Each structure stands twice: as C-alpha cells, then as structure tokens.
C-alpha cells in the first residue's frame, strides 16, 4: 500500500519543492546512517510525508540543515534536513517495508521479497524494540487483516478500520497531548489508503483470484466513497492546527493522493475513446 501519499510536485512553488526535497534527502540520509546503505532502497514518499507532517506538528523541535553528496548525487551536493522526527520516519519506513516484503512473500511466494526480509530481520528487531507500540500495532493489525482475507470479508469498513489502527500508531511518535489528534489523523488517512489501494487493485485482484473487499461493490461508488474518506482525513488535519509546511501537506492531501487514481482514470478514458473510433 505504498505510493499514494505523494506530493503533486508541479503544483508546489520552488521554495516548497526545496523543502519537500530536503526532507526526502534527509530521510534517505537517516536510513543510511541508522539502518545501513542498502536500506535506502526502501525510501518512500509516504514516510517523507510523515516527516513533513510531524515536523509541522512539532514545529518547536530542533532541526539541522546541511548539504552533502551521495551515491545518487556524486557531483553536486544537495540539501537535507535532519531531526529526531526524520529519524522516527526512517524507523517507520523500515518497519513498514519489512512487513510489505513479508506480505509479498506470503501472498505470491516472491523469492526476492523473502530475501529482503532475511536481510532486514536483525535490523527490524532492533527497530521494533525501540518502538514496541508501533511494532505491535503493525504485527497485530496485519494478522487481523490476514484473517479478514482468509475469511473473504466483504465489508470493506472492517479491514479499512484495521489498517487505520495501524496508521494511527505509525503517525503517533509520542504519548503526549498531541497524540489523540495524530491518532485520529493517522486512522482516517489509513482508511483512505486502504480503500484507494483496493480500488486500484480490483481489476488485477479479480484476474488473479486475490482477495479484495470491494468485489461486491459498484465501481460507480468508488469516487464518492473515497471523497468521503478524504474529507474526514482533511478535517482531522485541520484539527491538528499545524502552522508549518501547511501548503506542502495540503498539496499532498488535496491533490497528490489522487495522482495514481487520476492517471488510471485518464488511461481508461483514452482506451474507451480509442475503442469508439
């Protein structure tokens, strides 16, 4: 379920692009320093968003900026932002990536995914010990999702709420006064991501006889359902009263999260148009 929480880069100002990229590079750097060189291959825009959001929520937490060259940018140094919140996002990136690979192995017997799990296991154990609440939420939530899958559960609210509980903990780094609102936001975003992923994968899941809770739902309802779920998410964001990086976060929530869905819809329109000629 990676790849939905992205920015619409074209709609960002040059300054906003610079800030967004600095968090992306900071996350990449933190992965390398905390989890080894190979961990950078798991880098995701989803966790870049987490770093940006949490940095906005906890705007009083110290950050350090810098420049460095790296393997991907060996000629020209690039800006990065570093903080304890970026490090937290890197740790969550590792946990989510591990369980993503594990799911690929269980579902499709993907040998490459199994190999990645094996390489990451010791580092994941260390990270899970550092974040036991988030790790337990991931482990238990994915186990519950597996039960829904095996039972062929066709009420999409149940697995969506389950994934929402996982994201609620991922988006809550500390047990403090901001935790309830962050849990609410993470839960709402998780529900949206789960249903969006089910919508996007429905055709492929039907073809390959894989579980999808939307098999009994009309595709005409998908956009209204997603709109409703995203409205709840944006309402939760407003309740957080973030004062920093607001434009970047709103870009992701109001535009970026629709990127893959809109590409698919345009492709379908093009195919239908070509077929009518």
If you had to describe this structure to a student in words, what would you say it looks like?
The chain is mainly alpha-helical and 277 residues long. 68% of the residues lie in helices and 4% in strands. It contains 10 helices and 2 strands, in the order ααββαααααααα. The protein has a two-stranded antiparallel sheet.
- The poorly predicted ranges are none
Structural class: mainly alpha
Radius of gyration, in angstroms, nearest whole number: 19 Å
Distance between the termini: 36 Å
Q: How are the strands of the largest sheet arranged?
A: 1-2
Order of helices and strands: HHEEHHHHHHHH
Q: What is the total tally of β strands?
A: 2
Overall shape: it is: globular
What is the count of DSSP helices, taking H or I runs of 4+ residues? Answer: 10
Largest sheet: 2 strands, antiparallel
The share of residues in extended strands comes to under 5%
The residue-averaged pLDDT reads 89
Helix content: 55-70%
Characteristic key phrases:
mainly alpha; 277 residues; globular; 68% helix; 10 helices; two-stranded antiparallel sheet; single chain
How would the blueprint of this fold be written?
Elements: H1 14-35, H2 45-57, E1 64-68, E2 78-82, H3 84-108, H4 111-130, H5 132-151, H6 157-170, H7 179-207, H8 222-240, H9 246-254, H10 259-275
Helix pairs in contact: 1-2, 1-3, 2-3, 2-9, 3-4, 3-5, 4-5, 5-6, 6-7, 7-8
Give me a quick take on this structure:
This protein is mainly alpha-helical. Helices cover 68% and strands 4% of the residues.
